[in-house]
Design brief:
With 65 residues, this protein is α+β, with helices and mostly antiparallel strands. The chain is built from two helices and two strands.
Length: 65
């Protein structure tokens, strides 16, 4: 368990429609959050899926120096 998961804010229940609206997302679509590398592998799986979905990707810096 990480320190973030023990924070009270992470156990708070939020309204999906309100959160989706804040980010410009459709609350009725499946949403994937990708927080690391591997987009190529994930893309193959997503392209094979039926239906509509949303993809949120968080990018970082490999070598911050």
């Amino acid at each position: 368990m990480s320190a973030a998961s023990r924070q009270p804010a992470f156990s708070e229940r939020l309204d999906r429609a309100v959160c989706a609206a804040e980010w410009g997302l459709d609350p009725n679509r499946t949403t994937f959050l990708m927080m690391s590398g591997g987009l190529d592998a994930l893309a193959a799986h997503l392209l094979a899926m039926r239906g509509e979905y949303q993809l949120i990707t968080l990018a970082g810096v490999t070598n911050p120096c």
